[in-house]
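Summary of Year 1 activities. Much of the first year was spent building the evaluation harness for sequence design. The harness presents a backbone, in tokenized form, and records the residue chosen at every position. We chose the following record to illustrate the format because it has been used consistently in internal testing since the harness was completed.
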């Protein structure tokens, strides 16, 4: 009897569409019921079975041990699943892996050296995680809009989400899009974009993300809509290569650089001038990006464009509205250009608003 009940219950758990936390507690409740059945003697052992307990105390002892082992296994299972599917009142935060993230990459199998410091493959270049955040108010359309963020040096997905409050800023933008954050060189002084510098890899990554969302019934079809790229500091390199050879340049309509224009200027200039891209560049006085930003601003003027230049920190979405190429020269520090400016940039974005 109890075996039949457990078999039926396990089948129910595998096919239950309810949220995972509910199923977790429901399973714990059912387990306690099973334990109660055993203790109360509702399960009878045949006289001729291979196991004949001496008395009820021994039965209770064995059952208690089995019950504790079951709970421990359940705890470990749930901890692993919850780590992959974080519960957030603002929306769904998923973590997946993809073969088309920056790393692992053969050029970093033996690590990387920078200024007498060695960054090992393990812990720095062995992570293919992609964080995906879907706001509760997101409405699936025929094509899916994606906001990609890339971190810079000495950073990671978890650290960036926390330090820059990226999810809060993304929500403040109020755009009907999905936030995607692929891991880069984790906690390292390295701008190398790994596999994402190769032709067509970004397109494959986007496909992985969209098919995952479709499998989880978050979107209806894996059709690519508008893509926005954003990145801080050393993220400039991977973003430039994605623009140049990622395979979805026609879909990338906006690029946000947060004190990040260190190099690859020609790739950004080509995208701006050939794809009419909306380009926002926020700069600090001592971050090492000011000269390149000033040069690109002047080049765009020489080529007949009308870039907008603003000096100061008091930036609003209204100030940015209506401009295609925007250069903001602040007196902020390198890590101060992220919050709240990413949210402000998004508020001025051409992405559709939630609810419209």
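For this record, the design step produced the sequence shown next.
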């Amino acid at each position: 009897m109890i075996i039949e009940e457990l078999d039926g219950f396990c089948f129910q758990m595998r096919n239950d569409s309810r949220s995972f936390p509910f199923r977790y507690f429901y399973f714990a409740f059912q387990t306690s019921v099973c334990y109660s059945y055993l203790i109360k003697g509702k399960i009878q052992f045949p006289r001729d079975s291979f196991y004949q307990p001496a008395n009820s105390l021994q039965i209770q002892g064995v059952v208690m041990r089995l019950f504790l082992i079951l709970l421990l296994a359940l705890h470990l299972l749930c901890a692993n699943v919850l780590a992959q599917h974080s519960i957030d009142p603002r929306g769904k935060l998923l973590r997946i892996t993809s073969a088309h993230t920056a790393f692992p990459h053969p050029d970093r199998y033996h690590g990387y050296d920078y200024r007498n410091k060695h960054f090992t493959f393990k812990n720095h270049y062995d992570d293919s995680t992609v964080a995906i955040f879907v706001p509760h108010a997101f409405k699936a359309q025929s094509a899916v809009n994606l906001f990609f963020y890339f971190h810079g040096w000495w950073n990671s997905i978890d650290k960036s989400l926390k330090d820059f409050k990226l999810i809060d800023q993304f929500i403040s933008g109020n755009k009907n899009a999905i936030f995607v954050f692929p891991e880069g060189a984790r906690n390292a002084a390295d701008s190398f974009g790994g596999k994402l510098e190769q032709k067509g890899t970004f397109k494959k990554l986007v496909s992985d993300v969209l098919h995952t969302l479709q499998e989880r019934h978050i979107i209806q079809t894996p059709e690519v809509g508008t893509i926005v790229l954003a990145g801080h500091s050393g993220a400039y390199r991977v973003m430039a290569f994605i623009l140049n050879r990622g395979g979805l340049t026609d879909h990338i309509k906006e690029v946000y650089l947060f004190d990040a224009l260190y190099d690859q200027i020609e790739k950004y200039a080509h995208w701006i001038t050939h794809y009419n891209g909306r380009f926002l560049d926020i700069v600090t006085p001592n971050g090492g990006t000011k000269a390149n930003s000033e040069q690109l601003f002047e080049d765009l003027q020489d080529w007949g464009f009308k870039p907008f230049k603003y000096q100061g920190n008091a930036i609003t979405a209204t100030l940015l509205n209506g401009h295609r190429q925007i250069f903001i020269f602040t007196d902020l520090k390198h890590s101060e250009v992220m919050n709240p400016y990413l949210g402000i940039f998004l508020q001025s974005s051409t992405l559709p608003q939630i609810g419209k």
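DSSP finds eleven helices and twelve strands in the chain. Quantitative recovery figures across the full test set are reported in Table 2.
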